[in-house]
C-alpha cells in the first residue's frame, strides 16, 4: 500500500543517513500487520524455548508506569522491531526482531560495547542488501531451517564488488565468490565484518528460523548503508490501536 505524506502517531520519523526513501512518498505497513508479525514471532520463540524479558509484553499503562525506570530500554532501543524496510512487501522483504541488550553509540551514559538481537525469519523473507561502517556481527542460526546468506565486498563508490570475499564460519576461514549463496545450518554462525555488503533469509522449504545477532553496539539511525533506497523503520498506518510498542516509538508514545 502507498500513501503520500504518510505519518503515524505511533511511529518515529524516517531515519538513516542519505539512503532513506523520500518522506513524501513511501509505502506503509498497517499496525495490524505489525501486531500479527510480533504475535507470530513471540509464539515461535516460546515454542522453541527462547524466552523474552517481561517488558516484551508490557501494555501501554505499564509503559507509562515504568517510564523512568525503563530509561535504558528507551534510549538504547531495546524491544520489538517489525519492519518491511519501506518495501510494502513484508512477506518477502522484512524482519521481526527483538533487541535484548545494546549500548548507546557515542555516549558515556550506557556503555555496553555489545548488542544482542533475536530474529524470527520467515521462509524467503530477505533483508535488503546493506553494510555497516562500524558494527561487526555474528549471525547465528539458533533454531529451525537453514539461513542463506550472500556477501560482497564494496567498491570505493559503495557498489557491489565482484572480488572474492573472505569470511569465517564458527572460527573456520572460508573464501567465496561475490554474491554466492552460503548456507548456515542450525548451530552455525558467520562473522560479518564492517564494510561487507550482506543479505540473508530463511531457505524456502525448510521452515522459519530463529536467528541471533551478536554484535558490537547496534546503531540503526546512522550505521545502516543500503545498496538501494531503503527505509529502516516503516511508516505505519494506524488501522487498529497500538498493542506492541516498537523500539523506535518509545519517545513518541511514552510521556
Main attributes of the structure:
single chain; 32% strand; alpha+beta; disordered N terminus; globular; three-stranded mixed β-sheet; 13% helix
From the 3D structure, determine the CATH topology. Jelly Rolls
Radius of gyration: 18 Å
SSE series: EEHHHEEEEEEEEEEEEEEH
What proportion strand?
Answer: 25-35%
Helix content: 10-25%
Number of strands: 16
Distance between the termini: 31 Å
For the biggest sheet, the summary is: 8 strands, antiparallel
CATH architecture descriptor text: Sandwich
CATH class equals Mainly Beta
Mean pLDDT: 90
Judged by helices, strands and strand pairing, the structural class is alpha+beta
Q: Any low-confidence stretches, pLDDT <50, length ≥5?
A: 1-25
Q: Helical element count?
A: 4
Total domains: 1
Overall shape:
globular
CATH homologous superfamily title:
Jelly Rolls
How are strands sequenced across the largest beta sheet? 3-4-5-14-7-12-9-10
Amino acid at each position: 500500500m502507498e500513501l503520500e505524506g504518510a505519518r503515524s502517531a505511533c511511529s518515529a520519523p524516517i531515519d538513516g543517513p542519505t539512503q532513506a526513501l523520500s518522506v513524501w512518498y513511501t509505502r506503509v505497513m498497517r499496525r495490524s500487520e505489525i501486531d500479527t508479525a510480533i504475535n507470530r514471532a513471540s509464539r515461535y520463540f516460546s515454542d522453541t524455548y527462547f524466552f523474552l524479558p517481561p517488558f516484551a509484553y508490557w501494555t501501554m499503562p505499564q509503559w507509562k508506569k515504568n517510564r523512568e525506570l525503563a530509561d535504558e530500554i528507551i534510549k538504547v532501543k531495546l524491544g520489538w522491531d517489525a519492519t518491511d524496510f519501506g518495501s510494502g512487501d513484508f512477506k518477502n522483504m522484512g524482519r521481526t526482531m527483538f533487541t535484548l541488550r545494546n549500548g548507546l553509540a557515542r555516549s558515556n551514559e550506557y556503555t555496553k560495547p555489545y548488542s544482542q538481537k533475536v530474529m524470527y525469519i520467515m521462509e524467503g523473507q530477505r533483508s535488503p542488501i546493506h553494510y555497516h561502517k562500524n558494527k561487526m556481527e555474528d549471525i547465528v542460526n539458533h533454531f529451525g531451517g537453514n539461513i542463506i546468506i550472500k556477501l560482497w565486498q564494496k567498491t570505493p563508490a559503495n557498489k557491489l564488488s565482484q572480488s572474492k570475499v573472505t569470511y569465517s564460519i564458527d572460527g573456520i576461514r572460508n573464501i567465496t565468490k561475490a554474491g554466492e549463496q552460503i548456507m548456515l545450518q542450525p548451530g552455525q554462525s558467520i562473522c560479518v565484518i564492517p564494510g561487507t555488503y550482506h543479505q540473508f533469509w530463511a531457505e524456502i522449504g525448510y521452515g522459519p528460523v530463529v536467528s541471533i545477532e551478536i554484535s558490537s553496539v547496534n546503531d540503526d539511525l546512522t550505521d545502516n548503508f543500503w545498496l538501494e533506497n531503503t527505509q529502516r523503520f516503516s511508516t505505519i498506518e494506524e488501522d487498529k490501536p497500538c498493542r506492541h510498542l516498537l523500539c523506535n516509538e518509545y519517545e513518541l508514545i511514552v510521556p
